Amino acid sequence: MSRALDRAGTWVGWAFFADLASALALTFGYMFSRPVTMQYPDKEKWVPYSRYRGHHFLTRDEAGEIKCVACELCARICPCDCIEVVPYEDENGKRHPAKFEIDTARCLFCGLCEDACPADAIALGQQYEFSSFSSRDLVIGRDDLLAKPGKAATGGSVVAAQLNTEKNVLVETKEPRGYDWWRNIRRT
Amino acid sequence: MLHWLSPGSQRATAGATGIASGATPLYRGRSLTRSRSWSTAEARISSRVQPFPQVARKMELIVALGLIVLKVALLIAILLLLPLPLTWLERKIAGHMQQRMGPMRVGWHGLLQPVADGIKLLTKEDHIPAEADRFLFKLAPILALAPPFVVFVAIPFGESISVLGNEITLYVSNMNVALLFIFAVIGIEVYGVIFGGWAANSKYAVLGSLRTCAQMISYEIPMGFAVIGVVMLAQSMSLIDIVRAQADVWNVVYQPIGFFVFFVAGLAEAQRIPFDLAEAEGDLGAGFHTEYSGIRFAFFMVSEYVIMVLVSVLVVILFFGGWNGILLPLPPLLWFALKVAFFVYVFMWFRFTFPRYRYDQLMAIGWKVLLPLALANIIITGILLS
Ligand code: SF4
Ligand code: SF4
Q1: Closest CA to A168 of A125, A124, A138
Q2: Which ligand is closest in space to the CA of residue A98?
Q3: Is a pLDDT exceeding 60 seen at residue B59?
Q4: CA distance A181 to chain B (A)
Q5: Which of B99, B104, B261 to mutate to test the interface with A (most CBs of A within 10 A)?
Q6: What gap in Å lies between CA B270 and CA B90, rounded to an integer?
Q7: 8 A C-beta contact, residue A93 and residue A154
Q8: Cα(B145)–Cα(B148) distance, integer angstroms
Q9: Which of A24, A37, A42 sits opposite B353 (nearest CB)?
Q10: Which residues in chain A have Cβ-Cβ distances shorter than 8 Å to B349?
Q11: Fewer CB within a 10 Å sphere, N or C end of chain B?
């Protein structure tokens, strides 16, 4: 009985385009939902999660001394052979890198250098805007690496930002934390 | 004289001059319009300017002709500019239905994007494939573009408005066979599409135009039959009379089947999804205009949008009471524009909701569903009228 009713219902629905009508209702509903577009270079910017593997950075200890002990383990383990470390000994007999260069053009951001480092000196941070017109500019030296931003504290949000074309095309933001992008995604 | 502009009947004659005589009331009721014949207008002119009746008549003629030229120019300008906001709207609607934003970067919310696109199309290389039939290849975009514009000559946008004390009718010509004229002229547009695909000498393009051929033949028939019900109700083929006949109740109430058939056939006629097999970008590249670039491609695009507007206008005139409003006392022209805008929106809404029909399904719908429905509609209308 119910199956017969079902079938009759399907036929009535078919005759009056129930499926097409529900499709139209769905798209109409979506038309007034919030777009999920992240207006990246113009207005907004994505703050990556803390586990994100972006641009490398070198860290300092509490005394302000560079943590790296120039053991060259990172250079060894790097599958792309893109780290070059030249050590020196300071007056206290501690080893430090005189030269520490990463060729980010060749790097595949695998994070192995971060894993291998015994001194927690090198890590992959949150910066992802470092494209360049020349591959030579992508070889980053020690002092630049020290100045790079570290890992994101809280990620996964979108902050208001503006394109800055003066400083090598960067999207700058002042807000530390914006809205949660996932909130906008409509789940039906 | 201007008689060649207006097909025989008395009723149409006054409309064709472009100036209605101010003395007679214009609205509601066909009997009133009969009195507005050419001879009364002449009498009025000669009584006003006594000494030189000949000169006065010539002056009036020149003014009437000038008015027609002005109207046509205005119409062409509007129709040529219309695709600009429509492409923007279409992309915006597409974007928001897919939870995107659409164009945002050129102008406020991407409002100037169509202008940028237009400049791009104008400055692009106009490429003709080496193996193409050059003459047909150049002719096709024009053949596709011109007929939709010509059709608008027969379309009324309202009764009349008064400018500086003169009543100016809102149509170029009130033909008593307007519907036939429209169907005849719009049929030519298909040649543009067919020639375009044929002349390009490309497989995709030929397949696209083959499909168009079959599609147009299958859908113009039910479209024509769907209109017959409306003609039976209004007892006239003049679009103005059809709209006047709907002053109280819109035709869609009496002719729901007719409206359905006309609308579906109109979708196919405008080659919009779900019937856009001619340019099915998924399986045919871009169908008949695969090989076109630059301004010729733009011609096809403009033609497509004008036809979309045209089908919306026809639906409004034939089934939704033209400029007759309900509930709100808005100006008739605004009512008309609002209704047309609604149907244009429906076209876009469909486009981003439905998938494309398969080719055999398209044929089956045309011949096995729409045509019998349209025929049944005529019979039912006939029975109910008698
Ligand atoms: S992330 Fe991988 S590829 Fe890049 S420098 Fe470190 S080890 Fe080498
Ligand atoms: S960054 Fe770490 S692994 Fe690389 S040289 Fe310095 S201490 Fe060694």
Answers
A1: A138
A2: 2
A3: yes
A4: 13
A5: B99
A6: 15
A7: no
A8: 6
A9: A24
A10: 24, 27-28
A11: C
- Looking at all shown ligands, the one closest to residue A116's CA atom is 2
Cross-strand partners of A159: A45
Interface of A with B (CB under 8 A): 20, 23-24, 26-28, 30-37, 39, 42, 186
Res. A115: pLDDT tops 80: yes
pLDDT in tens, B231-256: 988 888 888 888 888 888 888 888 89
Give the closest residue to B237 by CA, choosing from B3, B32, B8, B67.
Answer: B8
Structure-block tokens of residue B133: 């039939």
Helix (H, G, I), strand (E, B) or coil at B6: coil
Residue B22 has pLDDT above 50, yes or no: no
Please, are residues A34 and B97 in contact by the beta-carbon 8 Å criterion?
Answer: no
Q: How far apart are CA B346 and CA B344, in angstroms?
A: 5
Q: Which atom of ligand 1 is nearest to the CA of A114?
A: 6
Please name the amino acid found at residue A36. Answer: V
What residues contact B321, with CB distance under 8 A and at least 6 apart?
Answer: B243, B246, B247, B250, B251, B339
Query: Coil, strand or helix: which one is B36?
Result: coil
| Overall pTM > 0.95 | no
**Least CA distance to B94: which residue of chain A?**
A31
> B222, B257 in Cβ contact below 8 A?
no
* Predicted ipTM > 0.85: no
User: Which candidate, B38, B41, B53, B40, places its Cα nearest to that of B2?
Assistant: B38
Indicate yes or no: CB of B353 within 8 angstroms of CB of A34.
no
| Token code pair at residue B258 | 């007719």
Domains of chain A, residue spans: 2-31, 35-50+152-188, 55-150
Instruction: Specify which residues A139 forms β-bridges with.
Output: A103
- C-alpha distances (whole Å) from B245 to each of A164, B111, B169, B240, B378 are 63, 40, 18, 9, 18
B64 CB-near residues (< 8 Å, 6+ apart): B2, B17, B18, B19
pLDDT of residue A150 exceeding 60: yes
Peptide linkage before B53 cis (omega within 30 of 0): no
Contact status, residue B350 vs residue B273, Cβ threshold 8 Å:
yes
Q: How many Å from the N-terminal Cα to the C-terminal Cα in chain A? A: 32
Architecture in CATH for domain A55-150 = 2-Layer Sandwich (3.30)
What's the pLDDT tens digit per position in B289-318? 888 888 888 888 888 899 999 999 999 999
Helix/strand/coil (H, E, C) string of chain A? CHHHHHHHHHHHHHHCCHHHHHHHHHHHHHHCCCCCCCCCCCCEEEECCCCCCCCEEECECCCCCECCCCCCHHHHHCCCCCEEEEEEECCCCCEEEEEEEEECCCCCCCCHHHHHCCCCCEEECCCCCCCCCCHHHHEECHHHHHHCCCCCCCCCEEEECEEECCCCCEEECCCCCCEEHHHHCCCC
